[in-house]
Amino acid sequence: MGLSKPPKDVLGLGRHLVRELGFEEGVDTLGRWMAHHLAELIDNAENGVTPAERSKARMSATETILKIWEHRASLPRKAYPLAPYEELLKLLDRLRPGDDPFRYFGLPTERKRDQLSADLFDGLSRLMIALLLMKLSPEDESAKMDAAAIEALSETEQHVLRALQQWGELFTSTNESTERTRKSKKGAAAKVHLDEAAISLIDNITNTLVELRSELQGAS
Amino acid sequence: MPFVVDHLPGLSRWLVQGESPLPALLEASGMQGSRITAALIEGMERHVDVLDAPTVYALVGLIGRHCGPIDTAQVMARYGDRLVQRIPAYERDTWDLTDMPTETVGGLARFLYALMGDIDVRIRWRAAHVARRLARLGDPGVIHKIVELYGRTSEPSFRKPDAPFYWLAARLWLMMALDRIAAETPSAVGRHGQWLLEIASDNEFPHLLVRSFAKSAMCRLVESRVLVPDTTQRDALQRANTSPVRRKKSRKPSRRSFDRYRHREHEERRFHFDPLDTLPYWYSGAVRQFADLDSEEFLNVAERWIVDHWGVQGEIWRWDQESRQGRFSDYSASSMHSHGSLPVLERFHTYLEWHAMWCAIGELMQTRALAKAGEDYYGTFEHWLALECVTSPPLWLADFHGSKPFEDRLWFAPKENVNAWVEDVGNDDYLAELGLVSDDGTIVVGGYYDTQSHNFMLSVRVETALVSPDTASALVRALQTADDSWDYRIPPAGHDLEIDAIPYKLMGWLIDVEHELGIDERDPLRYGVRAIECRPSHKTETALNLKFVHNDQARWVDASRWNTVFVYEAWGDNRGDEREDRLRYDETVRSSGWRLRADKEALSTFLNEMGLDLIVEIEITRRNKGYGYSRHDEEKTKQARFDRVVLLRRDGTIEAAEGRLGTWTASRP
After folding, report:
1. Per-residue pLDDT tens digits for B440-463
2. What residues of chain B score a pLDDT lower than 50?
3. Residue B491, preceding bond cis, omega within 30 degrees?
4. Cα–Cα distance measured from residue B651 to residue B612, given in angstroms and rounded to the nearest whole number
5. Cβ distance of B474 and A36 shorter than 8 Å
6. Do B487 and A26 touch (CB under 8 A)?
7. Global pTM?
């Protein structure tokens, strides 16, 4: 994965990586290895004895940080800002409109069954997205991520991240049902509680299933 | 002689201590043996009141030297008869003297062959080792005689006469011994090549394992050019122990195995097969080797071998029918064969069931299709059969057992207070585990061993991998500061934990060899040693141009210069047939384990060529109790695990998280 332009704060990005890759407990050898290595480089760049040493160390640190950042999509833990959305992105990829297997309705006699099947596919897909969004913990939300890390993403990644953040904002967990969100609900009908949305989807799916069952029984 | 008679007490005064002048005096007298004997007897008679018992026995021994053979025989006959009469009649063996071999070689051969058919598998292995060593000693006469015994199905003289002789076992262990001898000392068995070929092709006695070892032995004779087969023999060897029927895809598994709990024995069944272990584990595995064989059909054939071919009838599975009950009182050895294992002591019915299985497979594969496996070797009939033979052919597991290294900690208990010793691990201890205190030019690059007695235990694990030099220090710090050393692993080659993400490279160069033990698992002379547990990876072998050789020790040598690059050493003090509850109180220090050592010079060259350093993890665990300590001791038990990660740099330095520790390329005092 390349960079559209070099990030401004490379050492800031390095500090983000050290923090996310982790010195703490865990069994992720590569993450811990990177963290120790980057910490060493940043320390040299910031605390070198002479300006020449610091300059040389800064170059070395910058080079390594950018090299690691090129492979950010495969970085362990949450060093990559889009990592928390990995499952969601996979699902979205599978749920593109063109992937609906019932998009071409068959014979007129099967049309209703196909329509119900398409509704079911759509409903279940949405339900899965809602459930995956529910799995995201507050600290997974990219809004709280390091600015240097987000700034270092490519334009496309930043665009995807913004879209996902907006999507996340669309749903609000009931656990965080603060005064502010309740007030904003009045003003913005589009904001929905995640679990309410999931329940609504389940109701629709249940109805579709009942209809589909009748349709199949009638055909046999 | 009158002088000897008169002065016998004085002359024989220091006879017991071997310092009497009497023997030399008698020799110098030049008298006939009969006169000397008569004089000594007369002297003993006259002075019997002053001679003590040890001197009397020593004088009898002296008489024995001068006594004629006829007199000796008469005395022995009378004395022997007296001894026999003292044995209760019901405990006396009666021997058919016409069945006794009259020469040593024949007697030894009979004895060894009888032991190969003992109910104790460990004794069979010992007998097989004896045969093998006789061949190595250049004395194949006994081997030739044993081969002549192959047809025996009874052994009334060298085994309990009223108990069945396990002749099927004797055949198998003989064939295993011959296979090993054919690889090791082919000239000792070369003359039996044609006979081995006939055994390997024998459809009248189609014992799959016996045929397999016979075929293997013959192949080794051909490989070593001790035997040059003609075209007919070559064709026969290729066909031996194979199925002429084209393999087929296996059908669905209904009635293709035996259910441990739902199996119902047919009323007409003439032999009662063990439904708990024999059927669900041994026999189900055998049935699955065929494409479409019904489990009951297999049982019919196995039953025919036991009842019709071998003439065994009755409820032999019952304990009161077991004719060697006394032999099963050894609680250190199991007669069970649970979950498909092999028993150490074989009950008669277990012995029959196991060998009937091999004969049934051999018979059925002549007419029924074997199951067709995929392209992979694993899952094939050949792979299954190989798992039932020796673990690492042509070697036996016992071949890997070497002498215990001469290092104090493998031989002696800690000298200081054990509780203090448990917590006192320093850099020297780690470096000692790498073998850096010795000056043999090698370094330990992999290993695991434990040493213990009743009041201490030491276990050590060493693992190594290649690492990118620029980032290696960071990895050492990352690993050394991990909460628990079991949170990470220095990976072997090909392992999921290898890392190759520039600039972070952590690559295995050795392989962890995983293997299931074969029939030689029960060999007591392997002393707990398994086959090679760790070896250079294929890539390492190629890079260093290595060739594996085994001549009393497993080694990898440089194929062009023939100098040793890696040495595998394995040792063990436990025969594996001792009761653990006895070991718990045993003060003897016992050690077992293995190590892979690399030549330092070759390693240095290798690292420089690869442009990588070697990361080493040394884990030391110490405890103030040995073996399986009891719950009673739990409170007093103290155990500590220490872990050190170091780098062996290409320039010869040893580096730890806190800095340099020394050098590994230079010899240390």
Report:
1. 899 999 999 999 998 899 999 999
2. 668-669
3. no
4. 11
5. yes
6. yes
7. 0.75
